[in-house]
Amino acid sequence: MTKVAAVQAAPVWLDAQGTLDKTIALIEDAGRQDIELLAFGETWLPGYPFSIWLLAPMKAMELVMRHRANAITVDGPEMRAIGQAAKRAGTHVALGYAERDGTSIYCSIAAFDNRGELILNRRKLKPTHMERTVWGEGPADDLKVVETEIGRLGGLCCWENMQPVNRQGMYQLHEQIHVAVWPSFGMFKGNPMAYALSAEANLVQSQSYAMQGGCFVLAPNSIIAEEHLAAITGGDEFARMQVGAGGGAAAVFGPDGRRLTAPIDEFTDGFAVADIDLGMIEAAKVFADPAGHYNRPDVTRAVLTRSSGPAVPEELEALAEEAQ
């Protein structure tokens, strides 16, 4: 059995050093609890730039610039400190962060093993809607799964988890433990027109990823703290009506789709903790292995080639030979 946890907590919003200090404290807490994998939400460090969804672009620019100023590099002192904390705690750590590369910012996921070594870094392939005003796109081949002592580990950001091609790519890399990083679900709280952004809708995505892929899924996410609401909304009345404090909904799902953790109060920092057994994956894939006996790569090719013209028998035959 492996003890894993999805973090539900409020970052020190748009403050890299403050959030780093909290990150290290949470990793130390995980070590005391013998947690072997601790996962944080999307752009946990330095916090998700909610304002881009709520304010006119130029009105949100001050907060966008704060977000950029608090983005960190993959080889910078903040990441080294997180690796050192993971080593001291003896805990694998995965977290979403705003990655600076030169003068561009990316929505990234990094993972460290329990020796403090950086074993994974990847960028969100396609930021969603307003996110494209802040973050660049990751490279097409940035679907990654790494071998660890606790299993084959990978992760995707937010709505990357609902895109069929992304899912299939990760499944074909034989992922066993998936980290689906999400922001807080406090934005557009109670707005019936924004159900697709709700905790309920997006936890369904995490649950279906687990069941479809026959893998474990950790779904960490953040909390919007009451003291950050004024800055997030910029004093705008409409924005203030769209966002509320809380929005935490961390969970862990098993390879048969069942939820393995009880809900945490949405306003409360905490860990959604589960003991997982990779043997459950074998049982799930007896019925459906999307990268093996339940896969039809020739059908995938036929569907994809329709965008550039009808598939021809020779192409399908070649693909079938490749899959053997």
From TrEMBL:
Coiled-coil segments, which residues? none
- Which superkingdom? Bacteria
The name under which this protein is listed is Carbon-nitrogen hydrolase family protein
Q: What UniProt keywords are attached to this protein's entry?
A: Hydrolase
Q: Which InterPro entries match?
A: C-N_Hydrolase, C-N_Hydrolase_sf, Nitrilase/CN_hydratase_CS, Nitrilases_CHs
Give a GO molecular function annotation for the protein.
hydrolase activity
Which positions fall inside the CN hydrolase domain? 2-278
Q: Which family does it belong to?
A: Belongs to the carbon-nitrogen hydrolase superfamily. Nitrilase family.
Pfam (any one): CN_hydrolase
